[in-house]
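Blinded run. Sample ID left blank on purpose so nobody reads anything into the name before looking at the predicted structure. Input follows.
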Amino acid sequence: MAAAIGGLCTTGLMIGAIGATISDGGSDRTPTSGLTAAATRPPSVTTSAVARYDVSSPDNLAAELTVIEKKCFGSAGCNFKYELRVVTAQGVAFDPSTTYRASIVIDGGTNWERIHSLEVRGSKADVVSGSVSKDTLTTPAAVIETVTARP
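Blinded prediction complete.
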């Protein structure tokens, strides 16, 4: 491919040189091959590829809640200390120049519901620690509600 482009460039330069020698007294004539001036210019070649990124959404992000400490008090329930992070689905690439905010609800619809907002930029995301007291023994559940791009 590079040899073909180089050959076209050389041909274009030769045609331009022939056109210059045909000119007389300042008036340019079209080369005898009938090519226009635009056709005698070497073609421009671009080599930069346009990066394509995925659109951030609750479908390609997940909330990962890790319980660090759990203290239970029989039928009274448990106290949980946790770390919460956002993870991306495998193969997903977000624009590294855009920051997204993910709103995460822990145990939504309960009286101990917690809401966190974490930022995601490229493949990096915030991690937040927190605690929750529940009147059950079940581990808290985290769900991403919304994802929005920050201005």
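Unblinding after everyone has recorded impressions. The radius of gyration is 32 Å.
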